[in-house]
Amino acid sequence: MSRPTIRSRRELELDEDRRLAVFALRSSEAVRRGAAAEPDTSSRLAFQRDRDRILHSRAFRRLKHKTQVFVPHVADHPRTRLTHTLEVSQLGRTVARSLGLNEDLVEAVALGHDLGHTAFGHTGETVLDEILHGANPEALLPAAVAAEAGSFKHNYQSLRVVDLLEWRYDHAGLDLTDQVREGILKHTRWRVGYDFPLPDASGLALEAPCHLEGQAVAVADEIAQQTHDLEDGLRAGSVSLEAVERLEVCRRIIAGLGDGFRDEGRRWLRQSTLIRELVGLFVDDVVAASARRIDAFLDRHSVTDHAAFVGRAREVSQTTIWFSPDTQRMFDELKAFIYQFIINHIDVNRQDWRARKVISALYRAFWTNPLTLPTYVLLRARTELGLPFLRDVPLASVAEEVAGRYHASAGFARLIADHIAGMSDRFALEEFNSLESPSLDQTFGGRQR
């Protein structure tokens, strides 16, 4: 019987060097900007620590009550933003393990990639962006404020969450490594010069493609979205199984499965089998196509070891970890089908309309009367913006302070967006009811945030 051995962090880092591919990021290369103030004496590897910090954050826990596509409180089985995140993590790790990438880094990026998503899916993101641009008549900001407030996009907000809004230590943010921060931002589209107030843009390499681990998360996000949205749509009756089976990618799968699938009379089993095979086909294709692209890159630049790859790492394309052209074409057909019949379904559109009303009303209430905001937001206004703490202002002077200073501050407009973006669906609906629909049994949960 072998004796248990406790391996030091250095031993674990050396193990990474031995087993990871030459093009994988090493934990020993992690850059943590707050490390000088917080010495790392843990045996955990750097990206593992980031994964753990995200997992224990409040923002991560709130994902359980945030809508993916179908509202989670009407049934037990639709995906939530949390279960979506877990599926992205699982698929990302599968791709990473097959290619020899750093699984800890992939998992950390995957678990953090949607922390900035709003309640009610992408509709919440769209509404906040419209409000900050002064384009929402139900929550209209002054033109001068809207000109400075910036935009809203969930991947940028995710970075804002981990850099500024999440507090678990004696400093703002989670002090994540630059590699994880970069992967979180670049899991979807980004651009240089985007008008979003990031606390710290350093270490993000905004002008360059993402590292390969981040790209693995980006493609895992796409696969997870389309396959689980399809399954949720089938379960909700938004689309028929027969219509799905007519898609080219499904026809190809069914041809491979043969008569056993065609003769299966249990629709639930046919449906589950089809979703499973779709996931498998997409993941296998990504692994094979990505391996070919990586091999071509290594050959083109005569890269034979990790040190040589580091010198060329920023020259990889953003779609090195991605589908083959043939599978991309079938994936695009599936994506268009899902948009037409599931995302654009009447039930989803009705909940999106409600989301617009709720978020617009909440923003209007908080902007019009900042005293309806929880105290932590007003304390942020004092600490970060130098505005007077309204709870200490004499009542007779509150209106003057709000009109003269709060309503002239683009930073305050952003603080409200931060607060609303962090809400779960449930909390947003409770706040809406307490502020907009008075009743004898209402509660005022805003102070509990």
Strand/helix succession: HHHHHHHHHHHHHHHHHHHHH
Q: What is the typical, i.e. mean, pLDDT?
A: 91
Q: Mind telling me the C-alpha Rg?
A: 24 Å
Q: What is the oligomeric state here?
A: single chain
Approximately how much helix is present in the residues? 55-70%
As a percent range, the share of strand residues is under 5%
* Class inferred from helices and paired strands: mainly alpha
Helix tally equals 21
Q: How many beta-strand segments?
A: 0
Major sheet? none
Coarse shape? globular
Distance between the termini: 52 Å
Low-confidence stretches: none
List the helices and strands and how they pair.
Blueprint: H1 9-19, H2 46-55, H3 58-62, H4 81-99, H5 103-112, H6 122-132, H7 143-149, H8 154-165, H9 178-185, H10 212-236, H11 241-245, H12 248-257, H13 259-262, H14 267-300, H15 306-312, H16 325-343, H17 346-368, H18 375-385, H19 395-404, H20 410-421, H21 425-436
Describe the structure.
By secondary structure, the chain is mainly alpha-helical. Among the domains are: 123 residues, no CATH class; 102 residues, no CATH class. The protein contains 21 helices and no strands. Helix 2 runs parallel beside helix 5 and helix 4 crosses helix 10. The longest helix is centred in the middle third of the chain and has 34 residues. It is globular and about 75 Å long. The mean pLDDT is 91.
